[in-house]
Design a protein that fits this description.
By secondary structure, this protein is α/β, with parallel strands linked by helices. The protein has one domain: Aldolase class I (TIM Barrel, Alpha-Beta Barrel), CATH 3.20.20.70. Helices cover 49% and strands 16% of the residues. The protein has eleven helices and eight strands. It has an eight-stranded parallel barrel, surrounded by seven helices. Helix 10 packs across helix 11. The longest helix has 20 residues. The radius of gyration is 17 Å and the shape is globular.
């Protein structure tokens, strides 16, 4: 399979988390997004949660109007979020599961049990010109369901792989990686565009970036955290180098 350039989407949610911890207008998520864009990000991801715990409606408006790279609007499958997405018509929307009590997205969307509902939900978004992706576990059943409902893109949840690495569970990490590798190939064979993300760091990105079927990585929390120590531009540039090295060596 052709190994084209791997796109990097930078999630700026947690710039808003820092801002909201104190209130006021700083740090500004749009400013972070523009810095990420200047540093080589291929797109910007922002998750508007139902409880508005970080990104807010004015943030989405500012991003939609201020970016020159694509905006990937992460959202739960609710009528409120669909209305907002259809108003702004971002380049991409990523449908994710959402629970109010969770700190971050804990797993992939359950597509197989909600096929009919999700098929009807995403149809207007596709008709409006948004590239629709579904955030799912690396699971054959979910991937097949995503294809059946007409989602052109899936994003594979890399959290279990990254958590196993962080916890020193090397066998589990390797098993999770093999699952991601196999399911990326399976999804591509079905004609789906394959993205990946959640929990990726400098230490875990290269094996995922080397998978030829994956066309985009979305990385946020780690880059924003690393920016505290090295600056956002440096963090993104280092991640970009690691991704490109992985692509060049395979």
């Amino acid at each position: 399979m052709s190994m084209g350039k791997l796109r990097l989407g930078v999630n700026i949610d947690h710039v808003a988390t820092v801002r909201n911890a104190r209130g006021g207008g700083t740090p500004d998520p749009l400013r972070a997004a523009l810095l990420a864009e200047a540093a080589g990000a291929d797109g910007i991801t922002a998750h508007l949660r139902e409880d508005r715990r970080h990104i807010t409606d004015p943030d989405i408006k500012a991003l939609a109007e201020g970016l020159t790279v694509p905006l990937n609007f992460e959202m739960a499958a609710t009528n409120e979020m669909k209305t907002i997405a259809l108003h702004h018509t971002p380049n991409a929307v990523c449908i994710v599961p959402e629970k109010r009590e969770e700190r971050t997205t804990e797993g992939g969307l359950e597509v197989a049990r909600e096929e009919n509902k999700l098929a009807h939900f995403i149809a207007p978004l596709r008709d409006a010109g948004c590239r629709v992706s579904i955030f799912i576990a690396a699971d054959r059943l979910q991937i097949k369901a995503a294809a059946r409902i007409g989602a052109p893109v899936i994003e594979l949840h890399t959290g279990a792989y990254c958590d196993a690495h962080a916890n020193g569970q090397l066998q589990q990490r390797n098993e999770e990686f093999e699952r991601l590798r196999d399911m990326a190939a399976f999804a591509a064979d079905l004609g789906l565009e394959v993205h990946a993300g959640h929990g990726l760091t400098f230490d875990t990105v290269k094996p995922i970036a080397a998978l030829p079927e994956i066309q985009e990585l979305n990385i946020g929390h780690f880059l924003i955290g690393e920016a505290i120590f090295s600056g956002l531009e440096n963090a993104i540039l280092r991640m970009r180098i690691l991704m490109d090295e992985a692509r060049a060596n395979h």
